[in-house]
């Protein structure tokens, strides 16, 4: 095609655009792409590290895991005490000559059971699991007893509840001397 | 009236109620004599009876409280919808069955010859539906306040605590099963099983038209799972579960202090303590060996026995793999009512109970 305008413009003084890339080899292109990808993934990796940082907040607005629950004689024998249910999620129980601390979480699906004074049992409102005052399950779907927290007497004679240590009956851990205090 | 209320409350006891529902289901679908309930006249009659029952329920303070709770209003409405569409499918199916018996093509075959224009016929209907539905939603949202409560408090669980209506069936299953079965395994199997349906269904009939006679087994199985094991569980969760997740009749006062003796016992305790009169063995594998054997037999022996007897034709038609999948899914489905009856009649807690490893069946 002799009258093609592009063909006739070829010898013009302005260099054609492809001329600028003439120095780029396939190998060079690929290594630049490699560098780009490596730095991109590196940046992403660092960014996700900062996301991980969110899992370790500077301040935790949680009640402390260990707390003092008053003196043993503040608790009446044969009764379940609800005073720390809302703040620490525990039932304080004094029964059969011992004081123990039950975790207020149903072992079925994690609802908070209620202590029914008249029926003398814990009853979960979600699926109807029932527990004796000892925490042993006897009705409904809960497969195992309520868990107990570590409880010891502090130096000043107060009860010290340690929620970091859990005692499970089905593992025979309620025999552990730190799962209850004699009172 | 008091006598009627007492009678209804008397029926509403889990084993009686569910036995009645099971019987009603099979009678309604299988007994030819009562197939008049799938006629338009009977539909209007049943609908009137249902509305009359709800209207009567509104006069009772206890039932009124359940019916008018904002959470429950859509459930009541949907029950009528489920009823209507179950009736409609059976009505159309039986109509086609009569035509097939008389050597006529199904109604859908005739309808497929008729041509209807998208505009205006379809679009116009859609627009009308949209407008009416919007009006309904607006009126509804004005007159029924959203049931918003105080901020959540982990120490205060409402009594009774109920899941949203579409999860009430799951919640009801959780009363009888360990969380990992009722909350993970069975719902997962429902979804997987529904997805597998086209691959395990050997019956090619009923494609594009309603029929009952040609797909009796398939329709019964599905409707049993849907109407009895899913919708009925939602009804149970909505109307019959009161404080402490106890079972109440619809006219019964929701007494927080209602005492129901529900002391459960594991199969291992029944066998070792009550039958053999020895203590529970220390080793969990020995302790639960009977339960494990029973469960294994249920899932391994029953398919073999069924394959030789009741499901012989299925086994021959479908081949080993498809047959095993079908029977496995079916056994999982039936295990739910089995476990429910075991709980109601024998206070059976778990057949296999290994709390040491969070494994209970």
Question: What is this structure, in a nutshell?
Answer:
The complex is a heterodimer of chains A (183) and B (361). Chain A has 183 residues and is of the alpha+beta class.
How is this structure best described in words?
The complex is a heterodimer of chains A (183) and B (361). Chain A has 183 residues and is an alpha+beta fold. Chain A has helices spanning 5-9, 26-53, 85-88; strands at 66-68, 79-81, 90-95, 98-103, 114-116, 121-123, 130-131, 137-139, 148-153, 159-167, 181-182. In chain A, a hairpin with a 5-residue loop joins strand 7 and strand 8 (137-139). The longest helix of chain A has 28 residues, at 26-53. The termini of chain A are far apart. With 361 residues, chain B is mainly α. Chain B has two domains: 2-147 and 209-245, no CATH class; 267-360, no CATH class. Chain B contains 15 helices and two strands. Chain B has helices spanning 2-11, 14-30, 40-58, 61-67, 73-101, 107-111, 118-143, 168-176, 179-200, 216-240, 267-275, 284-287, 289-308, 312-318, 320-346; strands at residues 353-354, 359-360. Chain B starts with a helix and ends with a strand.
């Amino acid at each position: 095609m002799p009258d093609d305008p592009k063909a006739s413009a070829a010898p013009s003084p302005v260099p054609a655009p492809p001329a600028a890339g003439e120095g780029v080899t396939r190998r060079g292109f690929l290594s630049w792409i490699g560098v780009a990808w490596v730095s991109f993934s590196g940046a992403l990796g660092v960014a996700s590290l900062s996301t991980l940082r969110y899992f370790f907040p500077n301040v935790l607005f949680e009640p402390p895991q260990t707390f003092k629950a008053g003196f043993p004689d503040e608790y009446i024998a044969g009764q379940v005490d609800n005073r720390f249910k809302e703040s620490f999620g525990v039932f304080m129980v004094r029964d059969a000559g011992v004081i123990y601390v039950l975790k207020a979480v149903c072992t079925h699906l994690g609802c908070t059971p209620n202590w029914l004074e008249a029926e003398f049992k814990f009853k979960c409102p979600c699926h109807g699991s029932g527990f004796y005052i000892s925490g042993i399950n006897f009705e409904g779907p809960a497969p195992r007893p309520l868990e107990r927290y570590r409880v010891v007497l502090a130096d000043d004679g107060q009860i010290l509840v340690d929620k970091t240590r859990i005692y499970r009956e089905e593992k025979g851990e309620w025999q552990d001397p730190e799962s209850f205090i004699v009172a | 009236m008091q006598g009627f209320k007492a009678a209804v409350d008397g029926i509403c006891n889990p084993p009686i109620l569910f036995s009645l529902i099971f019987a009603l289901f099979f009678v309604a679908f299988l007994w030819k004599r009562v197939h008049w309930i799938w006629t338009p006249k009977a539909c209007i009659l049943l609908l009137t009876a249902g509305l009359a029952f709800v209207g009567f329920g509104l006069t009772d303070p206890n039932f009124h409280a359940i019916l008018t709770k904002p959470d429950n209003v859509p459930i009541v409405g949907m029950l009528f919808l489920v009823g209507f569409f179950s009736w409609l499918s059976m009505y159309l199916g039986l109509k086609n069955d009569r035509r097939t018996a008389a050597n006529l093509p199904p109604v859908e075959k005739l309808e497929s010859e008729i041509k209807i224009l998208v505009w205006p016929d379809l679009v116009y209907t859609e627009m009308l539906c949209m407008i009416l539905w919007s009006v309904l939603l607006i009126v509804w949202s004005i007159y029924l306040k959203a049931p918003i409560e105080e901020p959540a408090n982990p120490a205060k669980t409402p009594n009774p605590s109920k899941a949203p209506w579409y999860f009430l069936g799951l919640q009801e299953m959780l009363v009888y099963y360990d969380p990992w079965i009722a909350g993970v395994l069975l719902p997962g199997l429902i979804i997987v099983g529904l997805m597998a349906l086209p691959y395990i269904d050997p019956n090619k009939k009923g494609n594009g038209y309603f029929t009952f006679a040609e797909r009796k087994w398939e329709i019964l199985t599905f409707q049993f799972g849907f109407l009895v094991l899913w919708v009925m569980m939602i009804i149970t969760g909505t109307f019959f579960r009161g404080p402490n997740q106890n079972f109440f009749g619809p006219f019964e006062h929701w007494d927080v202090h209602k005492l129901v003796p529900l002391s459960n016992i594991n199969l291992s305790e029944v066998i070792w303590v009550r039958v053999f009169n020895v203590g529970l063995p220390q080793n969990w594998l020995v302790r639960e060996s009977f339960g494990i054997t029973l469960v294994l037999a249920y899932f391994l022996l029953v398919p073999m026995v069924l394959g030789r007897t009741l499901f012989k034709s299925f086994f021959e038609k479908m081949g080993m793999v498809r047959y095993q999948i079908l029977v496995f899914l079916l056994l999982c489905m039936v295990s739910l009512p089995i476990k429910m009856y075991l709980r109601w009649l024998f206070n059976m807690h778990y057949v296999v109970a290994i709390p040491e490893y969070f494994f209970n069946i």
